[in-house]
Amino acid sequence: MKHILTINFLSIAFLLASCGNGNNKSDGYGTFESTETTVSSEVQGKILYFPVEEGQLLKKGELAALVDSTQTYLRVLQVEAQVESINSKKQTIAAQGQVLDQQLENINKEVRRAEGLFKLNAATQKQVDDVTGQAKVIQMQKHALNVQLAEISIEAKALGMQVMMLKDQLAKCRIVNPVTGTILVKYAEVGEIIAPGKGIYKIADLSEINLKVYISGKQLSDIHLGDSVTVITDIATGLHEQLGIISWVSPEAEFTPKIVQTREERVKLVYAVKIRVKNDGSLKIGMPGEMKLKLNR
């Protein structure tokens, strides 16, 4: 009787263990990742201020670094002085134009008077020609002045554009953090000379992190955007489970990456899936994780 009970107990335990193993088998395996942003300088110069450190939380819009802007600032002052000089010339030319306008008005009166006297035989043709010639000279002077004013206006506009460009470069000497996140890597230090396009730090928002797993074509019909799944990670005391939301499913199949293990053979095609997970600080980029679908099995 004892032997029968022992055999029955062992059979039941084996079945329970078998069922438990089936239920604990995950549906996808992969690693955690996040959208990483490499922040670069848009201007060349020496870093004067760069207080950020790796692991520091930095908010969007905060000043992250300052690049030496002395030469750019001096260039702005120089070009602005040139603009003021051009504007002064424009005022002088405008005043000269007013004088010529008055002279032309006066000479036109003389032309009309000479023509009237000529009709009355009180003036000679030479007198008429002289005042008419004077009027034409003043008109030509006025035209030359207008051409000069147009050229100076074009020059002033070009200098104005230079000022705008220099002020834009001046603003770019202030490196403002583009996204809220945690500093992952710091590539430069205060005092270093940086070039445009050179990254000075890398940042990522780790408040939410993505688990990228791979599933087989057979599982694809069970995957839908917005579905809740169970995300499993290893901790010191065993396994940790938490809620995840499917945020992306690849529209194209690919061969399973060698670094990822799935239930299917490596040579078969799989689909990448991203699961958005709230991060309490325990999840790290590159950490392995598993995904279990919430299905009735």
UniProtKB/TrEMBL annotation:
Gene3D superfamilies: 2.40.30.170, 2.40.50.100. GO terms for molecular function: efflux transmembrane transporter activity. One of its GO terms (cellular component) is efflux pump complex. Residues 37-198 form the Multidrug resistance protein MdtA-like barrel-sandwich hybrid domain. This is HlyD family secretion protein. It comes from Williamwhitmania taraxaci.
